Amino acid sequence: MATARVVQRDWLLIEGDLDGGAAVGFGGASAGRARVRLRAVFDDLGDTALRRVLRAYCIAPQSIQALERELGLPARSGKALFREALIRAARVYDAQEALLDDLPRRRDS
Predict the structure, then answer these.
(1) Residue 78 lies in a domain
(2) How distant is the alpha carbon of residue 66 from its chain centre?
């Protein structure tokens, strides 16, 4: 899914520093926007299995079966959780984009 790639790209852009503690290096303002997007996604998911699933598949890839064992989930349920996490992440990204579209544009004179 495209959302999984966007989450992964944002994570790589911020170099895994979700809290912004490190100096902004590679990416500059883009990294700042990526950090805001990811923070919103992880805040929306909360401290749940969905958050762990999204991290496992998009950020630190591991097999579905390994994640299911780690979380103590029944077989084939990891795929359903991943789908739900991506749906929620996509909603957050879409909402942020809609907010940006509503902001007045700066005009160059």
Answers:
(1) yes
(2) 21
Mean pLDDT of the chain: 79
Q: How many CB atoms lie within 10 A of CB 106?
A: 5
Q: What is the pLDDT of residues 81-90, one digit of tens each?
A: 888 888 999 9
Q: Does 108 reside within a domain?
A: no
State the DSSP code for 21: -
d(CA 53, CA 80): 10
Domains identified in the chain, total number: 1
Q: What is the pLDDT of residues 40-79, one digit of tens each?
A: 988 998 888 888 877 777 777 778 888 888 888 888 888 8
How far is residue 31's CA from residue 61's CA, in Å, rounded to a whole number? 21
Instruction: Indicate the pTM of the whole model.
Output: 0.73
| Cα–Cα distance for residue pair 88/100, rounded to 1 Å | 19
Per the structure, the complete domain to which residue 87 belongs is given by 2-101
- Burial state string for 11-36 with b = 16 or more CB within 10 A and e = fewer than 16: bebbeeebeeeeeeeebeeebebbbe
